[in-house]
């Protein structure tokens, strides 16, 4: 009973994180570059919670921000899908990333970029890889008991 409740809690966490990430990325992708830079700055400060090297790296490298955001999106989507459908998560995240770049092509102050799509794909692969490692570790630790 405890394992089932814990699994539901994790599932709800992943669902809420996925929704939050999709909203954040959609808003950031569809705004002007000045508004995007402000959102990005606030996100970088939130993630670092101090003036650390991560905060400075995020401010100086938008690609790192793409990588981290899409890794988190892929990780959270993987946890949101059922065990049988978890392989859809990277496809959904990839479709979302490409669609956001296409939308940016129609926003005057933004530019669509193939480099961003590539960095997004790398982040998605990293996030899904982390999820797979976590699941295999959790499965191995439960099968030992």
Structure, briefly:
With 145 residues, the protein is mostly helical. The protein has helices at residues 2-29, 33-48, 53-60, 62-80, 88-104, 114-144.
Secondary structure tally, helices: 6
Order of helices and strands: HHHHHH
Rounded to the nearest angstrom, the radius of gyration is 17 Å
Mean pLDDT: 79
Structural class: mainly alpha
As a percent range, the share of strand residues is: under 5%
Instruction: List unreliable stretches of 5+ residues.
Output: none
Q: How many DSSP-defined strands?
A: 0
Largest sheet: none
Distance between the termini: 16 Å
- The geometry reads as elongated
Q: Helix share of residues?
A: over 70%
Describe this structure in words.
- This protein has helices at 2-29, 33-48, 53-60, 62-80, 88-104, 114-144.
- The longest helix is centred in the last third of the chain and has 31 residues, at 114-144.
- It contains six helices and no strands.
- The protein is mainly alpha-helical and 145 residues long.
- The two termini are 16 Å apart.
- 23% of the residues are buried.
- Helix content is 82%, strand content 0%.
- The radius of gyration is 17 Å and the shape is elongated.
- The mean pLDDT is 79.
Characteristics:
145 residues, 6 helices, mainly alpha
Q: Would you spell out the secondary-structure blueprint of this structure?
A:
Blueprint (H helix, E strand, L loop, with lengths): L1 H28 L3 H16 L4 H8 L1 H19 L7 H17 L9 H31 L1
């Amino acid at each position: 009973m405890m394992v089932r409740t814990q699994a539901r809690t994790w599932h709800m966490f992943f669902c809420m994180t996925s929704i939050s990430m999709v909203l954040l990325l959609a808003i950031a992708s569809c705004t002007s570059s000045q508004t995007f830079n402000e959102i990005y700055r606030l996100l970088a400060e939130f993630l670092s919670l101090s003036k650390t090297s991560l905060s400075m790296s995020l401010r100086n490298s938008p690609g790192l921000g793409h990588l981290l955001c899409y890794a988190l999106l892929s990780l959270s989507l993987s946890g949101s899908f059922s065990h049988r459908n978890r392989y859809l998560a990277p496809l959904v995240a990839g479709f979302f990333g490409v669609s956001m770049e296409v939308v940016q092509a129609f926003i005057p102050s933004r530019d669509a970029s193939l480099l961003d799509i590539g960095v997004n794909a790398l982040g998605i692969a990293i996030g899904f890889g982390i999820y797979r490692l976590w699941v295999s570790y959790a499965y191995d630790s439960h099968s030992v008991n």
